[in-house]
Amino acid sequence: MSDERGSQDEDLQNRLHAMETKLKRMRDQRNNYSELARRAADSRNAIQEQGKELRERIKEFLDKQKEIRLVAKTHQMKRDEIQNQIRELISQKKGKRDDNKGTKSVILQLSEAVGEIERIERQIMTDGTISLKKENSLLKVLKKLILKREELSPLVEDFNILTLDLGDMEGSIQLLKSEADSQHKMMIDAHNHADEIWDEIKPMFEERDFIKAEGDRLHEAFVEGRKNADEVHASIVEILKKVNEIRDEMKAEIEEGRLAIENHNKSVRESLTTPDKDENLANSLSDQLMETGSLTFGGTLGNDFATNSKTKGKKKSRKLGTSRGRKQ
Fold first, then answer.
1. pLDDT value of residue 131
2. What single-letter DSSP state applies at residue 166?
């Protein structure tokens, strides 16, 4: 029995040692996975921060390029408006009139309004034959033209062009052509500047794409590291349960062995105790004597022992009477 128990204890010890060795190895493996995940996360965060700074720089360049493109678009609109007016002036010079005044350029409309205002004001001031009714009619037309001039002036100012002298058609056309060429040149220069900015942005886009791809790769490495660490940790938990079960079993075996030794020692002590030193036996005999008045030891009969006790305890009776005293 002792050999069998020793063999069981040894088997438990071997199993426990093997599991503890495996646990140490798995803890090291889990820690390695966690460290790899941490490094990947740190690298990912650093490169993502780098990507954020790069995206901000790209946005600044794009905003600047957008502003320049808008400037180019403004010069283009000015050029197109001036060219429209040049065509209208050429048509007027050739005697072709456009009855649809709504299609005229704002510059030409303003020039016509200013010329008509000057003509009416000059007529009112110099023509003494105008009747009161005619003068009131001219004043009403003049008021409308002044309102129109006020409406068109801000629009013309946006194109940075002076009103034209319609009395000098050829000079006005040449002035407009010169201004149209200037606006076209400024438009081209703005587009060239925007293209230069784009040339600076293109490498940034390539770097941005690389950083994004690298950030994605590092994030996947982080996720993979955490996944592996979690899987190993789950296995560690399972093995720890088994280790605790073995330890509990060994503890129970030790406790059982301890109780067996205590019981054995107690049995030995009891077998070596003599009757005169046995307190329990003395107490039992005392109780028996008090109850029955007799004791039984070994093979001695109770009656014999009682008889002998009574014989030994019997005394000769003494007669009581008057003594006459000793004879002399």
1. 83
2. T
Q: Give the C-alpha separation, 80 to 68, whole Å.
A: 18
Cβ 149 vs Cβ 163: under 8 Å? no
Hey, what amino acid is at 275? P
Please say whether the beta carbons of 187 and 75 come within 8 A: yes
Measured distance CA(294)–CA(300) in Å, rounded: 11
With a cut of 50, say whether residue 248 has pLDDT above it: yes
Alpha-carbon distance of 106 to 154, in angstroms, equals 10
Q: Is 322 exposed, middle or buried (0-12, 13-18, 19+ CB in 10 A)?
A: exposed
Q: What are phi and psi of 144, to 5 degrees?
A: -65, -40
Closest CA to 69 of 193, 159, 182, 180: 193
Q: Which two tokens stand for residue 169?
A: 């058609």
Contact 5, 249 (CB under 8 A): no
d(C-alpha 217, C-alpha 195), whole Å: 33
265: its two tokens: 């020692």
- Residue 164's closest CA among 146, 145, 177? 177
Cα–Cα distance measured from residue 83 to residue 178, given in angstroms and rounded to the nearest whole number: 10
Q: At what angle do helices 169-271 and 2-93 cross, to 10 degrees?
A: 170
pLDDT digits (tens, 9 = 90+) for 292-328: 665 555 444 444 444 444 444 444 444 433 344 444 4
Q: How far apart are CA 240 and CA 23, in angstroms?
A: 8
- The DSSP H or E segment spanning 328 is none
| Torsion-angle region of 274 (φ positive above 0: left; ψ -120 to 50: alpha; else: beta) | beta
